[in-house]
Amino acid sequence: MLKNFNADLHIHTCLSPCGDLTNSPKRVVEKALELNIDIIGICDHNSAENVQAAKNAGAKKKITVLAGMEITSVEEVHIIALFDKTQDILKLQDIIYEKLPPEENKEEFFGQQIIVNEFDEVEGYNKKLLIGATTLTLKEIVSEIQRFGGLAIAAHIDRESYSVIGQLGFIPEDLEFDALELSPNISQSVAINRFPGIEKFPMISSSDAHFLQDIGKATTSFLINEPKINEILMAFKKKAGRSFRIKE
User: Fold this and answer.
1) Distance of alpha carbon 95 from alpha carbon 135, whole angstroms
2) What digits encode the pLDDT tens for the residues 13-33?
3) What global pTM score does this model have?
4) Which residues, including other chains, have CB under 8 Å from residue 83's CB and lie 6 or more apart?
C-alpha cells in the first residue's frame, strides 16, 4: 500500500567541518521527529562515519535514516550518494578516502570533524581533510555510487559554488544523475526558468542543514510503498503509481 513520506535527504552532522558541533546524530534525529519528517539522509562531506549512529538513533524513533555522503569531485562539484545500508556507503567511503588530499584537517581553519555515537558520546575525531576535493571526476563518482546500488543526486544545483551548473555552466549529457537537488533558496518553477533543460531530470529539494534549526527548511514528499532506495528510484521514474513532489 502506497503511503506519503516526508523526506529531507541532505543533512550534515558534526562530522562535517563546516557543520555545527551540536549537530550530533541523536539531535538530528530528534529534530526531524519534532518536524514530522519520516526519512532523512545523513550526508557529511566525504565521510560516512556518523551514519550508523544516526541509524541507531533513528530506529528508536521510527525515523528512516538513509546512509549518505556528500562527495566533492575533482571539478569541485558536490554529489549526494544515498544508500539503504551502512555497509554500502562504507564501501564507497573506502574509495573516497583513497582519493582525498594527503594533508590532515586543520581544525583551527576548517573546524572539528567529530565522530559521535547514538548516545551523544564523542568517540573520536576524523583527521582527514574532508573539506577537500577528491581526485575523482564527476562521471567516476556517479558511476561508483550506482555500481554499489545507490542514488546519485547532483547537490544544490542552483548555487554558484560547488554545484554542477555553477562549476561547469551546464549538466554534461553523459552524466546519468538519478535526480537534481534544489536548495531551500529557490522554487522549482524559478529553477526551471533559470536553468533550461533541468526539467528532464527528477528534482528534489533538501535543507543541506549544517545547523539543527535548518533541518526541514526544504523537503520532498514521496508516495511510495516503503522508505527504501529502490522505492525512491521508482518514484523518480513514476513507476507503479509511485510519485514525488517538492513541498513548496
Assistant:
1) 11
2) 999 998 888 999 999 999 999
3) 0.97
4) 66, 67, 68, 89, 92, 148, 149, 150, 151, 229
